[in-house]
Write a structure and sequence with these properties.
This protein has helices spanning 8-14, 54-62, 69-78; strands at residues 21-24, 30-34. It has 79 residues and is of the alpha+beta class. It has one domain (8-78). A two-stranded antiparallel ribbon has the order 1-2. It is flat and about 55 Å long.
Length: 79
Amino acid sequence: MTRVTIDATTLAKFQGVDNLIEICDEEGRIVGHFYPYFEPPRDSGGKIISPISDEQWECRRQEQSGRPLKDILADLQER
C-alpha cells in the first residue's frame, strides 16, 4: 500500500465525511476513491460495541424463516 500525506487545507475537505468520496483532477476526471477510516465504538474494556442489542440478536436467532438446507441442496442437484 502506498501512503500519501496531505496538507491541512486538503485534509479539512475530508473532515466529517462518512461515505465514499470520488477524487477528481482539475478537469473532473476521476483519479481515485477515498473511504474514510471508521473507528467502531468500544466499551471501557476495549471491546467493540455492537449496534444490535442482545435482545435483537436473540429475536433473530429464534426466527423460523426460509427453507431447510437439505431442500435447497436437493433443488440444486436437480438442475
